Amino acid sequence: MAEKILEVENLKKHFVLEKGVFIKKNKIIKAVNDVSFSINKGEIFGLVGESGSGKSTVGNCIVGLYKPTSGKIYYKSERIDQIALQEKETKKYRDGIQMVFQDPTSSLNPRRTVRQILEVPLKKYRKIKGRKNLDREIKKLIKMVELSPGNINKFPRSLSGGQKQRVSIARVLACDPEFIVLDEPTSALDVSVQAKVIKILNELRKNMELSYLFITHDLSLMRNIADQVMVMYLGQACELADNESLYNNPSHPYTRTLLSAIPVVSEAEEKLKPKDTEVEGEIPNPSNIPDGCSFHNRCDKAFAKCSQLEPEFIEIAPGHFVRCHLYAKRGE
């Protein structure tokens, strides 16, 4: 049986919009609403959804940037969420969890060179001392992310977007993590640069036995790299399956819609795309989520029950879960 490195149980994160000039009464935004999943050691777990789906909030709760409203988070079987532990107690568990952010420009200190950026975690987490030892480790990190040694003494402003993101990855590796949350790490990069960064991340995962939570809005990106994929919509998981099941048998209307929107270059790929699902309108305001199924007002398969009763997250095949009334009888 595969060893689990991370488990999330019934995670909720709600934000309160306090009343003011434009808001007559307090409103609760259910950014994450009862989400559960687990990630095996050495696995890439893809978390996919539109803006406002809650996917990044899940990542922020895992690394401790947000305190969950409720729910449990386990890292290597130890509970690490801030509900259970005080900040000092979580530190020893969180040292093994790091995060790569979407925008490398804002996450790198513009006043520090690449050398100085990498020195900080090497000293703090690996306790490396001495100029020769630091130089040796910095060169190793630079090589691992396929950067030229000539970039070591440069400031971030002198680097391209792809180079900055690779420095961000090197900084995370300097912390010696086992689990990395990747929050849209390629969305700000050109397609050609995206492919290079993905290649580097995949090689690092294999060579260093890392595990990833890969957060993205691009479902096509996960097709060739993720072991499991969860699709989120308005704070909830609407589908979860292994890679092959999700892409070969997408079941939730929202998942099918996302897949149908992916550009293809061959007739064979075009034949595989779902063609029976259409979506209307925009994603609703998170502070005013529709009753029943949160997707019913955009779904062309919706019927009366969809607007009245929230569907359960049911297993329709081994390891394949869907939140949709269309599959209720199959899961019973």
Automatic annotation (TrEMBL):
Keyword NADP: no
One annotated GO molecular function: ATP hydrolysis activity
Domain of life assignment: Bacteria
Residue ranges annotated for the ABC transporter domain, each copy included: 6-259
Swiss-Prot/TrEMBL keywords: ATP-binding, Nucleotide-binding, Transport
InterPro entries assigned to the protein according to its UniProt record, in alphabetical order: AAA+_ATPase (IPR003593), ABC_transp_ATP-bind (IPR050319), ABC_transporter-like_ATP-bd (IPR003439), ABC_transporter-like_CS (IPR017871), Oligopep_ABC_C (IPR013563), P-loop_NTPase (IPR027417)
Family membership noted in the UniProt record: Belongs to the ABC transporter superfamily.
Protein name: Oligopeptide/dipeptide ABC transporter, ATPase subunit
Annotated source species: Halanaerobium hydrogeniformans (Halanaerobium sp. (strain sapolanicus))
Lineage: Bacteria, Bacillati, Bacillota, Clostridia, Halanaerobiales
